[in-house]
Amino acid sequence: MKSQRSVFSGLLVFFFLLGMLGQTGWAQTILKCGTSTQPSHIYNQAVRHLEKIVEERTKGEIDIQLFPAAQLGSERDMVEGLQLGSLEMTLTSTGPLGNFVPQVKLLNLPFLFKDRESCYSVLDGKIGSDIADLFVEVGIRSLGWYENGFRNITNSKRPIEKPGDMEGLKIRVMEDDVFILTMKALGASPLPMAFGELYTALEQGTVDAQENPLAVIHSSRFFEVQDYLAMTGHFYSPAMLLISEMTWQSLSPEHQEILREAAAEARDYERQISKEADANLLEELKKEGMTVTNPDKEPFVEAVSGVYENPKVVKAIGDGDMEKGQALIDAARDAAQ
Fold first, then answer.
1. Residue 146 has pLDDT above 70, yes or no
2. pLDDT tens-digit profile of 187-202?
3. Cβ-contact 228, 209 below 8 angstroms
4. What is the pTM of this model?
5. In order of start, what are the domains of the chain with their CATH numbers?
């Protein structure tokens, strides 16, 4: 009898707790968010900021869990994971995104933007919105254009002052034909490679050079394996916060709105710390022993001008239509002025 009473008491406690959970509406949704960058990088600072906002506003019902440093795979792997529903979120550069939405290649064109304000006018305007909306068609939803930043070139061979100094350099690039064609136009030998493999490739001499924003160069400690930094600013590299469409549709309208608003706030926060990083990290990299050059950009602009006219690029930007591609390039150039 005593044993039966114990079992009965245990059941009462169980159902009481179950009822309490139901009354409080507690039902936690875990959203894993992967990035390719080191924990200190601005991407991860932004995701942690997003996590705090969402946790507070959903009263803990949504828990965003950050997985930095390519723990969940390369950027392309993670984007594919969103399509499959095996990953909920990622904050990624645009490098691999042209393989999913070709129009993204527009934003990878060299020297398209002269400063951050011109970038934001395109990304936050009709062009950026129209491109972002296309992701739904491939099973992914954009939560906003974030920032990777203006990209600069590092190498282990020599200072870069002019395009001719790039001749023969084996340079790692992202998996996008615009990046490949740009580096070929500058005389370098581009090698597409996942970011997670880059440090080892530089250390072992598989590649001589790479190009990334200062925040990536510093947080990835490339100064340990690269001697020279050229402030070319040849690409402005946006980033995107993406969520699986399957995941998005599983959220309540209330949680969708909270996530959308929080993502916009985290975007503004990330852009600000990216700007601050550019202002501070150059001196840090000099202190680490890097030799810095500030090349005249005009010869570089002239050297890569043919990329804008390359039929493969223009057609890809137009999703197979040359005329549409050229119109989109012209519109972006106008909006960026």
1. yes
2. 999 999 999 999 999 9
3. no
4. 0.90
5. 29-335 (3.40.190.170)
